[in-house]
Amino acid sequence: MALEILPYSTEHYNTLPELGVAKDQFDAADVHKILYTEIKGVFIKHHVEGTVGLTLLHNHFLLEPNQKLVTFKKTVALPCDLDEGIDLPHIHATAWRFTDLGLAPYEFAVTTVGTTLDSPSMQAFLHEFAAVLKKWNLINILGIYSIDESSVDGLQTMEITEGRCNITLDIDLHPHEGTTIDAMWQFYTEAGMGP
């Protein structure tokens, strides 16, 4: 049976914790002990590591009931009012969280191609990954995000939230000091991307 992709609801986004709280939950659940073993293993087993990555569930700010967070040009995410009839034909979900009812999209982007989650191979991954999240009680801590072609083997990114705008910047180094929080992971086989 296919895992249902739920319709968008602002509540799926607004009920996520802010980033600092999400990191505390991640640390308290000791996710690192299974991050590069059991969790990575599910991505590699199903060959989805070039399609979806792992994300720490968090919000950047609260949305109004009629809004969704949409990223433009892969760099700036802003709340968009759904009631204003804005015609953006290429808005696709880019991040999902698991719920008791299915998979809920909570972040979006303007992109020409969306990630397909209904293929039999992707559904097999989603079912097994959901089972791992439930087994370790991580259903409200981790989700998945869509990897676009430009981010595969690309530079790391850093997100900065300023007011009600989230800005993503490419960085060519990994800061070892400071207050950065890892919130997205791409997994690789020993030979790189792919099986």
Q: Describe it for me?
A:
By secondary structure, this protein is α+β, with helices and mostly antiparallel strands. It has helices at residues 10-14, 19-28, 32-45, 120-135; strands at 52-56, 67-72, 76-81, 91-98, 103-110, 142-146, 156-162, 165-171, 184-185. The protein is built from 4 helices and 9 strands, in the order αααβββββαββββ. It has a 9-stranded mixed beta sheet with strand order 7-8-3-2-5-4-6-1-9. A hairpin with a 2-residue loop joins strand 7 and strand 8 (165-171).
Number of helices: 4
Name the overall outline.
globular
Gyration radius from CA atoms, angstroms: 16 Å
Number of strands: 9
Mean pLDDT: 81
> Within the largest sheet, what's the order of strands?
7-8-3-2-5-4-6-1-9
**Structure class:** alpha+beta
Percent helix range: 10-25%
Order of helices and strands: HHHEEEEEHEEEE
End-to-end separation in angstroms reads 26 Å
Question: Ranges with pLDDT <50 over ≥5 residues?
Answer: none
Report the major sheet: 9 strands, mixed
Query: What percent of residues are in strands?
Result: 25-35%
